Protein 1
Amino acid sequence: MAKNTICVWFDKDAEEAAHFYAKTFPDSAVGAVIRAPGDYPDGKQGDVLVVEFTVAGVSCIGLNGGPMFKHNESFSFQISTENQEETDRYWNAIVGNGGQESDCGWCKDKWGISWQITPRVLMEAMRAGGSEAKRAFDAMMTMKKIDVAVIEAARAADG
């Protein structure tokens, strides 16, 4: 287990989510599945309690803690993509598996976890600053899934 690990709270589906993430993102895997040694408020002895997993190289654990806490946009995974094909692949995997679209490259998976599917070209434009960043930002603000060609055109346009 890594020294610093992100703990993601699930109602009861941590193992299913971990397998989905491992199947969807490179450098991802499911590790140990730990079962409860006794009954607890939202589960019974033998239920999956904790799942160790990695998402795109980031160590995580999924805790099946019950319905007490809900996910919100204050936590998200940001996945950097190289092109439209990769952007589409991740976006479609998340949204197409019971998730939902949001704005500006954000979507939620079916467990309520927020994801930012962010093409590299968008972040490059933002780091460039000035009118280039403003044009790319304005274009992004009109989108759900990021359209790489539109961001590239906005970057290249004269201010």
Note: The chain has a mean pLDDT of 96.
Protein 2
Amino acid sequence: MRYDLVIFDNDGVLVDSEPISNTLLAGYLTELGHPTSFEESVRDYMGSAMHRIHELVEERSGQRLPADFDEIFHARVFAAFQAELEAVPGVEEVLKRLSQSGVPYCVASSGSHERIRVGHRKTGLDAWFRDEIVFSAEDVGRGKPSPDLFLHAAARMGVAPERCVVVEDSRLGVQAALAAGMDVYGFTAMTPEEKLSGAAGFFRGMEELPAMLGL
């Protein structure tokens, strides 16, 4: 194993949530008078913390989103998760291989702790992620592309940044990992390779990841 810690993004990497959440986000923004397509939501917001949505909308329109935007959006997302969410195919086998090899891993997500936990309970991934290895942008204040979240996760796990590898599927996440001084592998199931420039390697299916990690 060439790394001492594997840091997983959550949405789109562990749970197949990006199609659900971006469909809902595009619809809600459009409903509020900020016309947004699914493709635009993926391009602008995939991998970002909620504060980035507020900042971009205000920057572009001069208008602030409603004070209850996060609450309503998350309620819609959580309801959809309960009905539709599944784990990314093959990810449990990766986690099993890491556990059997004694390689530490964690999750570092732009989503809230509640969002992470709702998704993990629905998909059964909560069996693989105890509370002390779950990190959220809520813990640091600034989400991706800031490196703060990944640096926080590495520090809490007791591993130097240069000994970490991040598994990401978003442009913002790759930028954050590189800014943290970490290697990053780009998951291209939903995001084209060219959008993940700077990654040390790319893979389209989880069955490819163990070999890339040296397992």
Note: The first helix runs from residue 18 to 31.
Protein 3
Amino acid sequence: MVSGAERHVLILGGTTEARRLAAELAADPGLRVTSSLAGRVAEPRLPAGEVRIGGFGGPEGLAHWLREQQVAALIDATHPFAGTISFNAAQAAAAVHVPLLAVRRPGWVAGPGDRWHPVGSLAEAAGVLPALGGRAFLTTGRMGLAAFAHLEGMWFLVRSVDAPEPPVPARMEVVLERGPFTLEGERELLRRHAIDVLVTKDSGAAATSAKLTAAREAGIPVVVVRRPPAPDGVPVADGPAGAAEWLRRTLA
């Protein structure tokens, strides 16, 4: 991909796209690839190349790391809802003049038969829930359960990779699972727990979209939390292939 001395690329990761990109780039002998993981999952799937776990200490800390490690390009392939690190990356990259690309998988699109209720936040999702059902399947991750803790009249099925910590809803059952999830499995989950409303974030990707199909088939309403806005002025690729091509042009 590149010629001359080895070039250092930092991937802000934790997603499937980030792991695929790291595998492709790490195979290039002209690149040194480091993936940074937030450390919120106890046993993360480690990508190819070097790995660092934990935060940088805000945009200033990230800028210092980019400069100290002589990073030639920064790729933000974090989760679409990891808004803070994306804005930190934009500030840090601008401060030290390192090229930055954001990788953002396409979002989900409602189709015929879908009963979607788009909202702007988890708090807004909690506000509309009681009018839509009494047994909710929460697939928004373990970090935002406090937004639903006050809904004492509702029952929640919560799915996450690691066990959630308080504050959480009082009436709750937790399923510890990691995707991808099958359509048959999602159908059975909705049926077994008598789910009548689904809450999810518009994270995109096929690995977790089966729940949307299962909800459509069952006629269940879906509260969809919209993605936060991306930083202005940062170029975007929709997957690893586009990111690799951007890097080729950038480091040529």
Note: The first helix runs from residue 16 to 26.
Protein 4
Amino acid sequence: MYKALQSCAIMALFLLMAPAFAADKADDAVALITLENGATVRLNADFTWEYVFLTPQTSATTEGLAIESQETEIVQTQANTQSNTQALTQAEQISQPVAKVQPVVIASGPVVGGAMTASAMDHANLLRSTAKGGAKVSYLKSQWDSKGRLGLNFELSSNSEENYVIIEMEIGLYADSGELIKTETVNVWQAIFRVPETYLRKGQTRDSETFWIEGVDKARWSKELMTLKIIDMSSR
């Protein structure tokens, strides 16, 4: 009940603030909310919210509202525009009430490079899952082979009416210091064409294959810092 009330409070705040920003189509951000547990989320005008976790190495040019000295990049999307109910369910992962609301200005250009914020590193488990279109992908386990390659496995589940055949995901791997090591794009789910039993269907939970990644130093990745983002989906 407590978590449900937290979720309702966040969404209520979002709905109250959204009309004031609806006219500005160039900026999808409504506000940044800092939670008492230190995590920060961004409310978007399309009824989604995202964790803020990255501090860029280069400053960004902004217009309009003032912002703190460094811009932030947001990658982890936890809700989609087609289901406010799904957004409420995912917001229940936040364990502390809202502390304050800040105005936000989006950088005029892409942010290059960067490192995880201290808050993101403290709440790294929140970044090990991602959801989109009713499908959720979560980090399951890691392993190392004799060649020094990092193997990653993920768990997938779906509450969507769609039958997914391909789910493409971007993986960001970060050193224990918070610095970005590398990014990899994988088909975290790949069904067999015209073999329906291989599709990811509603109510199913499936494990991915093992994805082997080169160029990661095991000594620098003991904290298993990563970010996940679903970037494309195909269904039948």
Note: Confidence is low (pLDDT under 50) at residues 2-7, 13-27, 57-112.
